[in-house]
Design a protein that fits this description.
It contains four helices and no strands. The protein is mainly alpha-helical.
Length: 187
């Protein structure tokens, strides 16, 4: 039996029946090739157009898959960067609040005469500023987490997964088309 992938070579025992190195090896192409041979090298225009359309769809789908995979890789890298940034903002918030609390405890407040003597009221203003900065960091962390990380992860897991599902549906439809074409050819 001749191998469709390499007409000059016989099929080897380890060769898979369903592995196609090129689109020319697909069952649909083989069916069209047999029709071509049986009709004395006169291709039907409809079959030729269907084959061209099939090739165009496969190329477009492959391009879409490649683009989706590249976008997935970039999105995951961006997600990891956002996640690391939100962790840093959380640690920064904790550090700011911890330092403000320590400074507040050291300063003793406005009613402590010892604290007032070495600048307690100025330290109080500084602790208020540190707490505000910490609050802004926490708000930024929350927004990055909710607006970027969650939506980006959903995009990668749901939307980009739909591209793979579309490819599976296309492959299944192509097999059904090939089977129908072959059965119509036998009729």
């Amino acid at each position: 039996m001749l191998c469709y992938r390499h007409p000059h070579r016989k099929r080897m025992p380890g060769d898979s029946k369903m592995s196609f190195l090129k689109l020319d090896d697909s069952p649909m192409f083989r069916t069209q090739f047999v029709i071509f041979l049986l009709n004395d090298h006169i291709l039907h225009p409809v079959a030729e157009q269907a084959t061209e359309l099939y090739y165009d769809l496969v190329q477009q789908l492959q391009c879409l898959e490649d683009s989706a995979e590249l976008l997935k890789d970039r999105s995951l890298k961006f997600y990891k960067g956002c996640h690391k940034y939100t962790e840093g903002l959380g640690e920064g918030y904790d550090g700011d609040i911890g330092f403000a609390s320590a400074l507040e405890a050291f300063g003793g407040g406005n009613n402590d005469p010892l604290g007032v003597s070495f600048g307690g009221p100025v330290m109080t203003k500084f602790t208020i500023a540190l707490r505000e900065i910490g609050t802004y960091k926490e708000v930024l962390r929350s927004q990055v987490e909710n607006l970027l990380n969650v939506k980006l992860l959903q995009f990668v897991n749901v939307d980009l997964h739909d591209v793979k599902e579309a490819r599976k549906r296309f492959d299944k439809a192509a097999i059904m088309y090939d089977q129908a074409s072959f059965l119509a050819f036998l009729s």
